[in-house]
Amino acid sequence: MDERIHFYEKRFDKIFTVNTIYFWKNPKFFLSEIYRVLKFNGEFALTFAKKEFM
User: Fold this and answer.
1) Of residues 2, 49, 1, 23, the one with CA closest to residue 33
2) Nearest alpha carbon to residue 37 among 9, 16, 2
3) Phi-psi region of 21 (alpha: psi -120 to 50; beta: other; left: phi over 0)
4) 3 state SS for 6-27
5) What is the pLDDT of residue 1?
6) How many CB atoms lie within 10 A of CB 38?
7) Is 28 exposed, middle or buried (0-12, 13-18, 19+ CB in 10 A)?
8) Which H or E run contains 28?
9) CB 39, CB 10: distance < 8 Å
10) Residue 37 and residue 7: Cα distance in Å, rounded?
11) Residue 48: DSSP 8-state
């Protein structure tokens, strides 16, 4: 499975994800991809939520 994020560099102002890290086969690579597509001074939130909350 290709874990590249298929968007141009520095494309997004904000990236937000909930309960997804469990599915990343190579978290270090995927985080570098997030950094690649995030604009300078962009915001990234990686969060976890309990099942009861979701």
Assistant:
1) 2
2) 9
3) alpha
4) CCCCCCEEEEEEECCHHHCCCH
5) 55
6) 19
7) exposed
8) helix 27-37
9) yes
10) 7
11) -
For the chain, how long is the longest CA-to-CA vector? Answer: 36
Tokens 């298929």: give the residue: 6
pLDDT in tens, the chain (54 residues): 578 999 999 999 999 999 999 999 999 999 999 999 999 999 999 999 988 887
Tokens of 54: 């979701």
Residue position matching structure tokens 């290709």: 2
Which tokens sit at 24?
């990343």
Question: CB neighbours of 30 closer than 8 A, spacing ≥ 6?
Answer: 3, 5, 24
Distance CA 48, CA 19 (A): 5
